[in-house]
Write a structure and sequence with these properties.
Layout lengths: L13 H5 L5 H30 L10 H14 L6
Length: 83
């Protein structure tokens, strides 16, 4: 599209021409995109939260026999606890 040389527009310097204006539409785009991102994050967490609750917990030995079993395994491998 050729430039209209007969009816020139206002003369702006390069910095002014590159700057945009803050408007309500910009605000709403930012708000809605933030809400959608939070909803996606919450939805992804909600879908995987069942997997997190099924994780095996390591509560240590529950009986003295079990503790003895684990201590003999460590002594066989040559490692000592707390080292």
């Amino acid at each position: 599209m050729p430039a209209d040389l007969e009816h020139p527009g206002p003369v702006l310097n390069a910095t002014r021409a590159r700057q945009g204006r803050y408007g309500r539409h910009v605000f709403w785009v930012l708000v809605i995109s933030t809400v959608l991102a939070a909803a996606a994050l919450f939805g992804a967490w909600g879908m995987r939260s069942g997997d997190l609750t099924n994780a095996e917990r390591n509560n240590g030995a529950s009986t003295p026999a079990e503790a003895q079993h684990y201590s003999t395994e460590q002594s066989k491998s040559g490692t000592t606890p707390n080292n």
